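DM from R.C. (forwarded with permission)

"hey, sorry to bug you on a friday — could you get me a structure for this? deadline for the figure draft is monday and I only need the backbone to look sensible"
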Amino acid sequence: MSDGEKKPDGPMKDLVDRFLRAYRLDGKMDEMNIINNWEEIMGKAIANRTKSVRIHEKVLYLEMDSAVMRDELQQSKSLLILRVNEYAGKDLIINVWFG
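My reply, with the result:
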């Protein structure tokens, strides 16, 4: 390290976390984590029937290719919200919309 460079204040993870918070990207990273790990969160059967997953303003939008699966998830919406929020480690979503 040259004389003009500052030594980082903490571990790299802390620096990245501060950067994401500073640019308000931490929420987007949490959302992408849910979308990218949908199969792990909900299981293969549900993931295979899910055409699209997106999160906008704390609402999880799901497009399913099975009316039966959509109806079952609709009936257990509170459990779905709980499972996603537990995976995220925070209250990331407050509602689910099925398309």
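R.C.: lifesaver. The chain is about 55% helix and 15% strand.
me: no worries. The mean pLDDT is 86.
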